[in-house]
Amino acid sequence: MKKLNFRMLVAILTCGLLTTACGVVENPIEREYNKNLVDDFWEMEGNEGDSAVVAALESIENVVDLKPFISVNIGQAYYFNYIQPVDHSDPSKGTFKQQVVVSFVAKDAHTILHTQGYSLVGDWDKNHNRMDSIRAPHFLWALSTDYGAKGFDLNCVQVEYRYHGFSLPQGDNDRFNYLSAWQQSQDLHAIVTDLKKALFTGDGKWLSTGVSKNGVTTAQYAFYDEMYGWNDIDVYVPFVAPITPQEWDLRVGTYMLTESSKDVQADLKKAYEKLVNDQEIAEATTAAYITKYEQRNSTKVPSDSMFLYTLGGVMDNLFKVQSYGDIATWKKFIPNEKSKTEDYVTFFMLDDDDARIYRKTLGARGPRGPLAWRRDPFQVQIGIDQGNMSDDYTWYLEGKLLSDSDKAYFKNIMEEAKKSKTIDLQVELLKNLETTNKKLIFVYGENDPWTGAAIPDPTNPNVKKYLVPNGTHTDNFEEYGWYPGGAEVAKQITEDVVKILTGENESESE
To answer: Which residue has the higher pLDDT, 213 or 127?
Structure first.
C-alpha cells in the first residue's frame, strides 16, 4: 500500500467529491489508452505457446486478446483480457476488459492466484504495464523450492484490480461507480471458475496470496468466498495486509512511534524532537525538504506552510524507511547529540528512493500507465471499503518552534483520524475471522508500521498469524533470511501451507 499526502483533510474532501459526483454510464465503454504512455506493452514479442493451453483458454467465452509470451521471471506465460460486467449486480450496464496473466505448469498442479490491489505489476522502472517482465509473487518461489517441507511446480494466475492499469470499467476517466472489493471479488470468482473448468482441470489445490493492498484483496476475497459458498480457494496467505476498520487508522502511525524498530525508538524520538526544538536543524531540514519536494512535484510550497510541510514530509519518510528499509542498514544514519546539522538533514531526508536504505530487488515506484494522469483509484477506495493509515505526530507536540496553531493543526489531524468513518467491510471481515472455516495465514513484519493494523491474535484454529522478527513490508523470503529469526518463521509458514496443499492437515485432524 502507499500513503497519501499528510494533509488528510484535503484528501477526505477530494475523495468525497469524487464519489458523489460520478454519473452512471449506461453503455459499454472500451478502454482508452495513449500508446505513447505504454512503452512496449503492445509490441512485446509473442510466441505460439503450448497448443493445448491456447486451445483451453480460447474455449473460454470471455477470454479475448490472447497472447502467449515469455516472461523473464515466470517463463512461458499467457496474457489475455477477460470480459467482465461493469457491474456484477446488473450486467445490463455493459462490460470491460480485465487484464490477466497465467503461467502454466500442468493442469493438475497447484495454482497460486496473485490477488492484485493495483495494476498488474510489470517492470516498475520502465512501465507499470510492461508484460514481458511480469513478476510472480515471492511466495511462489518459496513454495517452488525446498524452503519449506518440499518444493512444488506451481501454476500462477495474476489479475489486475478493476479501475487500475488498463482494466477500466468506464474508460480512462475519473468515474469510479463500480470500484469495490465486492466487485473485484466477483471478478476473481468468474476468472477462477472458468480457469478451473477449461485449463486447471486436475486435482491441484488453489492458494491465494498478495502483499500489502494485494494482501488486503486476498483477505477480502476470502470473506466473500465464504459468504457466497464459492469454495474457490483452499488456503489464503495475505502478507503485510493491514485490515483498517477506519477510514484513517491512527494505530499505524502510533505503532511506528512505539513498536516498530524498537531497539532504536529512543534515538528516533530524540532526533525528531530535536527537529522541532533546534532552529538551525529545523531551517536546514526545511530548505532541503522543500527543494526536493518542489523538484519532484514541479510546484511551489506556500511560504507560510513550509515548516508544516517539512514536518509532515519527514514523518512520511520515516514511515517509508521503516516499511521498506533494513534497519541494520539505515539505523547508522540516526543522529545523536554529537551529530552535526548536516547529519540530521541527511537522516530526515532518507526515504524509499534512497539507495542506502531501499532494497533494489523490490523495484522503484513508477507510473501506472494512463492512471498517472487521472485520479488514483486507491485514494477513492479508501473511503469505500479499504481505509488507510494516519500519522501520529506526538513527537512534535512539545516542540518550542511550533506555534499553538501549528500544534493544534497536528492534534486536529489525529483527532479527525480517531473520528473518521467506520469501514464496514473491514469490521465484518475481522468479525468473520473468529468463526470462518476458510484457511487463512496472515504474515506481518515486526518493523513494518502497517503491522499496527494487523489482525488480532486469532482464536480460530483455521486462522494463523505470524510476525516476522525485524521484518519489513514485504513477502520476500530471501529478505526474511537476513533477519535474526526470520528464516525460521518463513519455514514454518511454508510448512503450514504445504500441509494444506498435500492434505496432511486433514489427516491430522482425523
So the answer is: 213
How sure is the predictor about 378, in pLDDT bands with cuts at 50, 70 and 90?
A: confident
Distance CA 310, CA 290 (A): 7
Helices (H), 144-249: 181-198, 213-228
The pTM of the full predicted model, rounded to 2 decimals, is 0.87
Query: Residues 184, 224: contact at Cβ < 8 Å?
Result: no
Mean pLDDT (whole number) for 344-350: 93
Strand ranges (E), 40-126: 63-71, 75-85, 95-103, 110-115
Q: Say whether pLDDT at 19 is over 50.
A: no
Is the pLDDT at 372 greater than 80? The verdict is no
Q: How many CB atoms lie within 10 A of CB 418?
A: 11
CA 47 → CA 51, 69, 101, 232, 441, distances in Å?
A: 11, 5, 15, 31, 37
For residue 297, the tally of other CB atoms under 10 A from its CB is 9
Helices (H) and strands (E) in the chain, counts: 17, 11
CA 272 to each of CA 32, 258, 285, 312, 369: distance values in angstroms, whole numbers, following the listed order: 46, 14, 11, 12, 37
Other C-beta atoms lying within 10 Å of the C-beta of residue 63: 22
Q: Which of 18, 366, 12, 65 is nearest to 173 (CA)?
A: 18
Give residue 377's pLDDT band: very low, low, confident or very high (50, 70, 90): confident
Backbone angles phi, psi at 293, to 5 degrees: -60, -45
